[in-house]
């Protein structure tokens, strides 16, 4: 048996043993069967966590294989080399196994929730109703479908671009299950679900990347030093991400610190923290010792340590699945429906003071804002260190945009936006019209292209080359086409509010994240085309940009008026359940929301008109200076002007019949 196969076996064994120990320690292995209550039996009791473990491991592996192929291994002008092609093919099988494991989790999930055996479940219509009508069932079905899609597309992927696209797809496929999981029953379910989703994203890159790297090393495949160095740079950030999101997941589930040593759940989590610290030490040792030896052609120590690290990581994954099957300590919250739906008590009557003081931490968008601010700041600092100038106006604009994003997603505005339609509309307009204007005027792509170093190897793709590749891709060309950008910006608003989409987006945390992200991204796309400073494939002349802006205005006005005229409440199921007793009626807040949608558009229009005027003026001045310079180089005459004058003279002569 090859060494890589032996490592795989050891890792699998460690994961299963840790799962069994965790299930026993968590009290889930031999639960007390209460007579009269349905019991699905031992097959289901073990089948569900084992299928979840399989799902986690195959998901991490699919991400790891695609990461290795698209990012860690150097490629030649975007064409994958032999080992990378091999990993993409392997990812196709891992993705298929992932889909299969998710299907198993559906079967065992139904049996477990209904207290039925597997044959009973397979014979009845339980599967289809679970897979289509429960949030967890729909999430698992998405993993089955996406897993099969990744498996199929990987068969034909031969470029780094295709492998990178599949990598992003695989990372997105990790999200539905944690974002709809049992953590939605914890005290702060939004924090709990966001934290586990971010946890799995960081884990997939870190654990998936290391497992494949260790196998790559054991098989003595080429370019180990490059991929190990690249992985090490990424691994530190993943480690920080796993730790922070793990702690946030814990905070969201435990009522008190003492739960860590008084509850089974807490003690399993402590075991994970110990493993996390150990893994941190191993990472430190790699940086301190083994990577240096690897670079000087002595891979032995790196291979041994990476092997041990892989086994420890997979054991921790086993433990984590047992943790996710263990009920967290009971939390006794206010017995009101609003709290169950919102994850926080219904706020008091709205006042400006409350909007500015009742902040509510949203982990997902806090991470988004921290990344946007942190990466931009690092870019500006690098230019400054190099002595390169970066217009301060752009930096200010960017951080105003990030600041407004934080305000719109973390302050009382975000809290009241979940409770009142008109406040929701203010949040929507801020995220889709105001924040994007400031972000696109910050010119982040130009900054990245100036701050990032080109790839060390000719033809290889580092972050800088990836940005240029994406900028020149057919996808970017299509989405930044003015017609497409406008259609997305306007069309999606109508599609969201005049269909049941809005109610499900308000009800589900995953839906809420998607809705907020969509507002932001569709706004950034639209304003990038109109006033973006960064290079883009579709640059409109200034008149065209003005036209694009004015074309959207009647649609916004019509949207607002339609809301104001409506006689029924949008998403009434959601708002009625909240049971708000203060403030205006639901219909009145909806009408106010319509008025806001209609009127709010004026503010960004003004800012955009100003920005276009300034950009137009600067462009004209630049052109005038350029033609002056050209006139200077050719000894006074401007060739264009000269030939035009000659043409006029000829006409003149012709008129005179000379
Ligand atoms: C500071 C260290 C860590 C803490 C506090 C932590 C905490 C948590 C918590 C609270 C959950 C949610 C469990 C639930 O659904 O109730 C979780 C999920 C998970 N953790 Fe961690 N974790 C840590 C480190 C790690 C490490 C190092 C790994 C693996 C190498 C890991 C792997 C996982 C996995 C795979 C899940 C998802 C389990 C599932 O639902 O399928 N965690 N973690």
From TrEMBL:
<feature type="transmembrane region" description="Helical">
    <location>
        <begin position="236"/>
        <end position="254"/>
    </location>
</feature>
<feature type="transmembrane region" description="Helical">
    <location>
        <begin position="266"/>
        <end position="284"/>
    </location>
</feature>
<dbReference type="GO" id="GO:0005886">
    <property type="term" value="C:plasma membrane"/>
</dbReference>
<keyword id="KW-1133">Transmembrane helix</keyword>
<dbReference type="InterPro" id="IPR032694">
    <property type="entry name" value="CopC/D"/>
</dbReference>
<keyword id="KW-1003">Cell membrane</keyword>
<dbReference type="Pfam" id="PF09678">
    <property type="entry name" value="Caa3_CtaG"/>
</dbReference>
<feature type="transmembrane region" description="Helical">
    <location>
        <begin position="478"/>
        <end position="499"/>
    </location>
</feature>
<dbReference type="InterPro" id="IPR008457">
    <property type="entry name" value="Cu-R_CopD_dom"/>
</dbReference>
<feature type="transmembrane region" description="Helical">
    <location>
        <begin position="191"/>
        <end position="215"/>
    </location>
</feature>
<feature type="transmembrane region" description="Helical">
    <location>
        <begin position="429"/>
        <end position="452"/>
    </location>
</feature>
<feature type="transmembrane region" description="Helical">
    <location>
        <begin position="511"/>
        <end position="534"/>
    </location>
</feature>
<dbReference type="GO" id="GO:0006825">
    <property type="term" value="P:copper ion transport"/>
</dbReference>
<feature type="transmembrane region" description="Helical">
    <location>
        <begin position="546"/>
        <end position="575"/>
    </location>
</feature>
<feature type="transmembrane region" description="Helical">
    <location>
        <begin position="358"/>
        <end position="378"/>
    </location>
</feature>
<feature type="transmembrane region" description="Helical">
    <location>
        <begin position="131"/>
        <end position="153"/>
    </location>
</feature>
<feature type="transmembrane region" description="Helical">
    <location>
        <begin position="93"/>
        <end position="111"/>
    </location>
</feature>
<feature type="transmembrane region" description="Helical">
    <location>
        <begin position="398"/>
        <end position="417"/>
    </location>
</feature>
<dbReference type="InterPro" id="IPR019108">
    <property type="entry name" value="Caa3_assmbl_CtaG-rel"/>
</dbReference>
<feature type="domain" description="Copper resistance protein D">
    <location>
        <begin position="228"/>
        <end position="323"/>
    </location>
</feature>
<keyword id="KW-0812">Transmembrane</keyword>
<feature type="transmembrane region" description="Helical">
    <location>
        <begin position="53"/>
        <end position="73"/>
    </location>
</feature>
<keyword id="KW-0472">Membrane</keyword>
<feature type="transmembrane region" description="Helical">
    <location>
        <begin position="305"/>
        <end position="324"/>
    </location>
</feature>
<protein>
    <submittedName>
        <fullName>Copper resistance protein CopD</fullName>
    </submittedName>
</protein>
<feature type="transmembrane region" description="Helical">
    <location>
        <begin position="595"/>
        <end position="617"/>
    </location>
</feature>
<feature type="transmembrane region" description="Helical">
    <location>
        <begin position="160"/>
        <end position="179"/>
    </location>
</feature>
<dbReference type="Pfam" id="PF05425">
    <property type="entry name" value="CopD"/>
</dbReference>
């Amino acid at each position: 048996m090859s060494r890589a196969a032996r490592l795989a076996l050891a890792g699998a064994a460690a994961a299963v043993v840790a799962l069994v120990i965790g299930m026993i320690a968590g009290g889930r292995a031999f639960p007390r069967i209460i007579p009269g209550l349905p019991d699905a039996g031992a097959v289901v009791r073990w089948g569900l966590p084992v299928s979840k473990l399989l799902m986690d491991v195959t998901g991490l592996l699919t991400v790891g294989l695609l990461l290795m192929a698209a990012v860690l291994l150097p490629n030649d002008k975007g064409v994958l080399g032999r080992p990378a092609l091999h990993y993409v093919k392997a990812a196709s099988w891992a993705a298929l196994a992932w889909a299969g494991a998710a299907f198993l989790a559906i079967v065992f999930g139904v049996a477990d929730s209904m207290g039925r055996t597997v044959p009973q479940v397979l014979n009845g219509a339980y599967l289809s109703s679970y897979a289509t009508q429960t949030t967890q069932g729909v999430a698992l079905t998405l993993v089955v479908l996406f897993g099969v899609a990744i498996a199929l597309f990987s068969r034909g992927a031969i470029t780094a671009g295709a492998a990178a696209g599949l990598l992003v797809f695989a990372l997105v496929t990790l999200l539905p299950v944690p974002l709809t999981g049992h953590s939605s029953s914890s005290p702060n379910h939004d924090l709990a679900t966001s934290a586990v989703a971010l946890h799995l994203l960081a884990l997939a890159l870190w654990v998936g990347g290391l497992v494949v790297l260790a196998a790559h090393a054991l098989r003595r495949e080429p370019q180990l030093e490059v991929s190990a160095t690249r992985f090490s740079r990424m691994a530190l950030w993943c480690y920080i991400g796993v730790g922070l999101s793990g702690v946030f997941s814990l905070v969201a589930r435990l009522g008190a610190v003492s739960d860590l040593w008084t509850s089974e759940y807490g003690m399993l989590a402590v075991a994970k923290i110990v493993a996390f610290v150990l893994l941190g030490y191993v990472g430190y040792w790699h940086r301190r010792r083994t990577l240096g030896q690897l670079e000087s052609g002595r891979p032995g120590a790196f291979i041994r340590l990476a092997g041990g690290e892989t086994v420890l990581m997979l054991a921790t994954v086993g433990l984590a699945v047992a943790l996710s099957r263990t009920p967290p300590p009971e939390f006794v919250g206010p017995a009101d429906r609003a709290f169950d739906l919102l994850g926080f008590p219904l706020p008091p009557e709205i006042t400006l003071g409350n909007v500015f003081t009742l902040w509510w931490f949203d982990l997902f968008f806090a991470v988004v804002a921290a990344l946007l601010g942190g990466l931009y700041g690092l870019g500006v600092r690098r230019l400054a260190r190099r002595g390169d100038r970066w217009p301060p106006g752009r930096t200010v604009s960017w951080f105003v945009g990030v600041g407004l994003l934080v305000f719109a997603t973390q302050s009382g505005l975000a809290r009241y936006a979940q409770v009142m339609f008109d406040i929701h509309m203010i949040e929507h307009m801020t995220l889709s019209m105001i924040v994007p204007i400031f972000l696109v005027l910050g010119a982040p792509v130009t900054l990245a292209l100036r701050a990032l170093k080109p790839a060390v190897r000719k033809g290889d793709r580092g972050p800088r080359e990836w940005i240029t590749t994406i900028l020149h891709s057919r996808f970017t060309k299509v989405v930044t086409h003015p017609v497409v950008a406008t259609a997305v910006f306007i069309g999606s608003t109508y599609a969201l509010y005049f269909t049941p989409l809005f109610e499900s987006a308000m009800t589900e945390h995953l839906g809420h994240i998607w809705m907020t992200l969509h507002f932001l991204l569709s706004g950034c796309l639209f304003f990038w085309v109109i006033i973006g400073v960064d290079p883009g494939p579709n640059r409109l002349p200034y008149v065209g940009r003005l036209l694009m802006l004015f074309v959207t205005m009647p649609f916004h006005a019509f949207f607002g008026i339609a809301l104001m005229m409506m006689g029924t409440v949008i998403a009434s199921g959601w708002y009625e359940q909240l049971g708000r007793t203060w403030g205006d009626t639901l219909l009145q807040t909806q009408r106010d929301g319509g008025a806001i949608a209609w009127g709010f558009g004026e503010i960004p229009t003004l800012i955009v008109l100003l920005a276009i005027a300034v950009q137009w003026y600067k462009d004209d001045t630049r052109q005038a200076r350029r033609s002056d310079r050209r006139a200077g180089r050719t000894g006074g005459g401007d060739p264009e002007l000269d030939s035009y004058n000659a043409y006029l003279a000829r006409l003149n002569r012709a008129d005179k019949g000379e």
